[in-house]
């Protein structure tokens, strides 16, 4: 039925190359909540597009499965265990995973389920605090948690433009490029710098929608002006290319997305990642 699963994701799990997960969790949100509603908004928006993209083509064997939503939990520790329990079988079976948040904290347990990956993030914020509002599992700490799992030299953030002193006045600063630098030197150089910086060949891409300028993606909890363009993020996905093993799109808040354009953009970025995966298999 229209909108109950991601478009074209009707293959059984065992036969699928790609598994899509909804993670409706936003209990550590620090400003405007509501990203728990994003998975279904992304599913509905996915029907806006053609099954194939003329740029990449669509293999006839396209096989995707929509797992549905993982169960919600109050405590972040329980939520992290639930995410790992649900997504690990797909990762162990070498399937390409796509997660639809939910807040950005959901990325950490996904990354922890992989072996030997790098993490490239698109984000307005560095998200590298040790803890925030009393919790080490806050969405403001996700890159710090990821760095603990994969190593500091395997994490890189693109498009940052909001960093607190606590995140910079330390010896283990998360590697990053600001949106201001990208505007000056171009997205192609930034992508190459990120890929050269991380050590593990395989890359997990996490896209916090607030990394994109709110003029293009207003439906998010923590808007930050002077961001990347959608085309920049498309180029990031294509630049990672054959190294891409999984991705997520997080922090879309449908109640602030009055035209639906943010969900449409998020769904299109997911389809871009899927197309790039198939193209480079």
Please state how the strands of the largest beta sheet are arranged side by side: 2-1-3-8-7-4-5-6
**What integer value in Å does the Rg equal?**
17 Å
Described by strand count, sense and barrel closure, the largest sheet is:
8 strands, parallel
The number of E-state strands comes to: 8
In N-to-C order, the SSE pattern is: EHEHEHEHEHEHHEHEH
Strand percentage: 15-25%
- Helix count equals 9
Estimate percent helicity: 25-40%
Unreliable stretches (pLDDT < 50, length at least 5) are none
Structural class: alpha/beta
Shape: globular
Could you tell me how far the N terminus lies from the C terminus, measured between alpha carbons in angstroms? 30 Å
Mean pLDDT across residues: 93
Q: Your description of this structure?
A:
Strand 1 (18-23), helix 1 (38-46) and strand 2 form a beta-alpha-beta unit. The chain has an 8-stranded parallel sheet with strand order 2-1-3-8-7-4-5-6, with helices on both faces. The chain is globular and about 50 Å long. It has helices spanning 38-46, 76-92, 107-112, 142-150, 165-168, 179-185, 187-197, 230-240, 261-279; strands at residues 18-23, 64-69, 96-101, 117-122, 155-160, 175-178, 202-208, 244-250. The mean pLDDT is 93. Helix 7 packs parallel to helix 8 and helix 8 (230-240) runs parallel beside helix 9 (261-279). It has 281 residues and is of the alpha/beta class. The chain has 9 helices and 8 strands.
């Amino acid at each position: 039925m229209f909108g109950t699963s991601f478009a074209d994701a009707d293959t059984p799990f065992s036969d699928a190359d790609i598994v899509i997960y909804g993670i409706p969790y936003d209990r550590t949100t620090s400003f405007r909540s509501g990203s728990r509603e994003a998975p279904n908004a992304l599913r509905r928006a996915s029907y806006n597009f053609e099954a194939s993209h003329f740029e990449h083509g669509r293999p006839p064997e396209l096989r995707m499965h929509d797992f549905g939503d993982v169960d919600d939990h109050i405590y972040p520790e329980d939520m992290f265990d639930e995410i790992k329990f649900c997504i690990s079988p797909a990762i162990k079976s070498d399937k390409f995973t796509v997660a639809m948040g939910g807040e950005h904290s959901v990325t950490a347990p996904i990354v922890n389920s992989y072996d030997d990956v790098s993490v490239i993030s698109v984000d307005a914020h560095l998200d590298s605090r040790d803890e925030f509002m009393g919790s080490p599992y806050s969405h403001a700490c996700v890159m710090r948690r990821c760095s603990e799992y994969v190593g500091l030299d395997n994490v890189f953030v693109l498009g940052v433009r909001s960093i607190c002193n606590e995140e910079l006045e330390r010896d283990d600063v998360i590697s990053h490029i600001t949106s201001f630098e990208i505007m000056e030197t171009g997205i192609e150089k930034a992508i190459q710098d990120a890929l050269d910086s991380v050590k593990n060949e395989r890359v997990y891409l996490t896209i916090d929608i607030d990394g994109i300028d709110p003029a293009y993606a207003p439906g998010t909890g923590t808007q930050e002006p002077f961001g990347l363009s959608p085309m920049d993020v498309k180029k990031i996905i294509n630049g990672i290319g054959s190294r891409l093993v999984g991705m997520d799109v997080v922090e879309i808040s449908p109640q602030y997305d009055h035209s639906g354009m943010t969900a449409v953009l998020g769904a299109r970025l997911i389809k871009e990642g899927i197309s790039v995966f198939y193209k480079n298999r």
